[in-house]
Amino acid sequence: MKKPIYILGIESSCDDTSASVICDTKVLSNVIANQEVHSKYGGVVPELASRAHQQNIVPVVQQAIEKANITKEELSAIAFTRGPGLMGSLLVGTSFAKSLALGLKIPLIEVNHMQAHILSHFIDENLNKTPPFPFLCLTISGGHTQIVKVTDHFEMEVLGETIDDAVGEAFDKSAKILGLPYPGGPLIDKYAKLGNPKAFRFTKPKVGDLDFSFSGLKTGILYFIQKQQRKNSRFIEENLHDICASIQFTIVEILMDKLKNAVKHTNIKHIAIAGGVSANSEIRKKLQFAEKHFGWTTYVPKFEYTTDNAAMIAVTGYLKYLKKDYSDITVTAQARLKVTQ
Fold first, then answer.
1. Is residue 22 predicted with pLDDT exceeding 70?
2. Which one is the CATH code of 129-301: 3.40.50.2000, 3.30.420.40, 3.10.105.10, 3.40.50.1110?
3. 214-220, long-range: CB < 8 A, 24+ apart
4. Which of 116, 155, 167, 242 could form a disulfide linkage to 312, CB 3.0–4.6 angstroms apart?
5. Could you report the per-residue pLDDT of 312-327, keeping only the tens digit for each?
6. Distance from C-alpha of 239 to C-alpha of 233, rounded to nearest angstrom
């Protein structure tokens, strides 16, 4: 009987401190400490984020190991997010992972945060299906919007990406324009369910077949709201659900248009989504529609593996562990890291 492989994953790229223990590809624990402190600033404050990571990392890791019902001495390796992300936040996770790996005399494994979002599809969950290679993955989050062709676990090619802002930022900034608290993306999704998606029209940006652009859309939404408020100061309150539904409809249409183009270009019909925005109910609904009408097979992660979490770091660490792809103790955090690095 083969010895189980226990990987501790540590994720600290932005404002969530997370630790997870997996046995092979099965999640035993996935602990996340959220930072409430940022909501009053309307966005993540890097300095406050790194301080909160310093406070959270020890109890979060301890809790993850206890929940997994193992001892730290049973760990096979420690995987951590090297980047991309906020430098101060990444340094906390990197330093802690290096120290713990050194103390336990076990391998250290660096993980690319964007690759981990994609590879979260290989977490072993009851009834889940893992995408076969090659597949296309739409990675959508607060910091990234990309269509990635995945030929193997660590062989990826970016087919298209945003030339300015990420889709998650478009959701959050639109919410801010409407006076909704941070993070506003989930609130737009919630209110959109009660509104008419065709109530207001917003212009889709004209960029390349597989590229995205959201800065013009954000500006268009801002000008539209300002113009309507000059006519009626209560415009937002009276039309909130319709505005949210129309914004969400436009953003999801943009994402789906690009995915259709990517399928046409590559002839690959296995489509996965990953990243925080993949929790959005409308994009999930549109993918279900695509399965029925375009013959796609779609792969949607469980909600808890869409936002930043350490289970995806741990499973990526496990896949690297099998290849003995370990990191040197001199490894440093890297705020900018492409999905292909």
1. yes
2. 3.30.420.40
3. 214/145, 214/162, 214/164, 214/165, 214/166, 214/167, 214/169, 214/170, 214/251, 214/254, 215/164, 215/165, 217/170, 217/250, 217/251, 217/254, 218/165, 218/170, 218/173, 218/174, 218/177
4. 116
5. 999 999 999 999 999 9
6. 11
